[in-house]
């Protein structure tokens, strides 16, 4: 038995999300469909992140166990020759049996892309969010710093979130003005359902002058989803990077930042 790690990218515009749903296309289904054909049996994959409907991934990891013995280049060819053109396997690695894509993930980075134009650009449909107004980048960056640190993000996640522990650590959050609009880049220990999109919409309202960044601490303390405002559209959101080691994460966050590590899979097994 071997454990295989896939690094993949996908355009989420035409997917109902990563995880298998009752209806519609999902990334998980496409990957498991190929594995079932190769093994003549069902093989479960385990992702580092379960992106929502319409959300894209520049870097996503999944692992699975297999009885087949193939070189990594053959695995890559087997997937990419059968996958639809909105998913691509970038890299295949054989890993230790105690590695887990989810539990060994120490951080994630997301980027949200917005373009500013008087009219919608149909060529950007599904890949960037459209606005018509100019936003105040300085105010948005100042407000973003209130998210840094460890907080209970109940107010900034969907009310449908089923996870009880809503405490997460944000290491970096910046708003970048681009030639065509704005990008919101955030690195954290993990993210809750719709969390990035709710934070981004709040920051955009700060940039519009509708909200104040100084409101954020009180909103976090309230643990009340209704206090944070609306959710930004899914189309502008990209899972940009998955960090599988503290060393990788340290390179991308401010120097001297303390990293909050989740229990490993082995530790969780011992606790259960």
Automatic annotation (TrEMBL):
GO terms for MF: RNA binding; tRNA pseudouridine(38-40) synthase activity
Keyword Cell membrane tagged: no
Active-site residues (renumbered): 52 (nucleophile)
Keywords on record: Isomerase, tRNA processing
Residues where substrate binds: 110
EC number(s) reported in the record: 5.4.99.12
SUPFAM superfamilies: Pseudouridine synthase
A single BP term in Gene Ontology: tRNA pseudouridine synthesis
CDD domains named among the record's database cross-references: PseudoU_synth_EcTruA
Class of the enzyme per the UniProt entry, highest EC level: isomerase
Pfam families, per the entry: PseudoU_synth_1
Origin: domain of life: Bacteria
Domain Pseudouridine synthase I TruA alpha/beta: 11-104, 143-241
Catalytic activity: uridine(38/39/40) in tRNA = pseudouridine(38/39/40) in tRNA
Similarity remark: Belongs to the tRNA pseudouridine synthase TruA family.
Function: Formation of pseudouridine at positions 38, 39 and 40 in the anticodon stem and loop of transfer RNAs.
NCBIfam families referenced in this protein's UniProt entry, alphabetically: hisT_truA
Subunit organization: Homodimer.
Name of the protein: tRNA pseudouridine synthase A
Protein species of origin: Macrococcoides goetzii
GN (gene name): truA
């Amino acid at each position: 038995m071997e454990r295989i790690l896939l690094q993949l990218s996908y355009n989420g515009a035409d997917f109902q999300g990563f995880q298998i749903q009752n209806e519609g296309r999902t990334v998980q289904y496409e990957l498991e469909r190929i594995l079932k054909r190769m093994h003549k049996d069902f093989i479960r994959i385990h992702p580092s992140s379960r992106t929502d409907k319409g959300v894209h991934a520049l870097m996503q990891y999944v692992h699975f166990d297999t009885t087949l013995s193939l070189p990594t280049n053959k695995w890559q060819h087997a997937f990419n020759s059968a996958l639809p053109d909105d998913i691509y396997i970038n890299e295949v690695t054989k890993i230790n049996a105690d590695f887990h894509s989810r539990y060994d993930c120490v951080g994630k980075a997301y980027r949200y892309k917005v373009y500013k134009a008087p009219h919608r650009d149909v060529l950007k449909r599904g890949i960037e969010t459209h606005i018509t107004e100019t936003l105040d980048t300085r105010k948005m960056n100042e407000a973003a710093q209130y998210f840094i640190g460890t907080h209970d993000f109940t107010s900034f996640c969907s009310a449908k979130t089923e996870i009880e522990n809503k405490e997460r650590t944000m290491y970096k959050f910046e708003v970048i003005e681009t030639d065509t609009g704005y990008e919101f880049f955030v690195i954290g220990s993990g993210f809750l359902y719709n969390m990035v999109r709710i934070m981004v919409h709040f920051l955009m309202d700060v940039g519009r002058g509708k909200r104040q960044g100084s409101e954020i601490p009180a909103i976090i303390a309230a643990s009340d989803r209704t206090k944070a405002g609306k959710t930004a559209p899914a189309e502008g959101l990209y899972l940009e990077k998955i960090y599988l080691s503290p060393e990788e994460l340290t390179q991308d966050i401010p120097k001297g930042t303390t990293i909050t590590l989740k229990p490993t899979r082995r530790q969780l097994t011992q606790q259960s």
